[in-house]
Amino acid sequence: xxxxxxxxxxxxxxxxxxxxxxxxxxxxxxxxxxxxxxxxxxxxxxxxxxxxxxxxxxxxxxxxxxxxxxxxxxxxxxxxxxxxxxxxxxxxxxxxxxxxxxxxxxxxxxxxxxxxxxxxxxxxxxxxxxxxxxxxxxxxxxxxxxxxxxxxxxxxxxxxxxxxxxxxxxxxxxxxxxxxxxxxxxxxxxxxxxx
Length: 195
Fold this sequence. Notes:
The chain is elongated and about 70 Å long. The protein is mostly helical. The model is unreliable at 16-25 (pLDDT under 50). It has six helices and no strands. The protein has a single domain, classed as Ferritin, core subunit, four-helix bundle (Ferritin). Helix content is 84%, strand content 0%. Helix 2 (32-60) packs antiparallel against helix 3.
């Protein structure tokens, strides 16, 4: 390539880059602080959606232990929202500019589909537990990542607050696993009786 051709190619590349910026398609420069902020807003949206959805799940549960566990987690989730708001306040992050967490929205809709498609009983409860654990695993991944970011950024108090929530999410997941053992046994028994 001649020097003249190379210069023309560079000019076109610069012009194309400028057009992208003008059209709003340019990527924003992000750092770990902005990544933490985005993650906090996302998980706050997720927790707020759960506060609205969990009463429906508790009402749909046939197993009393499952219903109680969901109601207990609802109260925990309300505390998670307050804790996240405290974290965001400490970091100077606006709580009003959040986007809706699409992942949580999808997981909640899957739960509603279970409620619509399954009759009340052990099989529905088993499906509800599976859906609830999918939500817990999403939250565990989110809080684990946020804890790591806070740690790397030297935000020890933020790390501790998020870590407390992470511990509670892991505990809820274990409670659901324990409940699933008896619920699944009951579902198998019912299925064998219907054969």
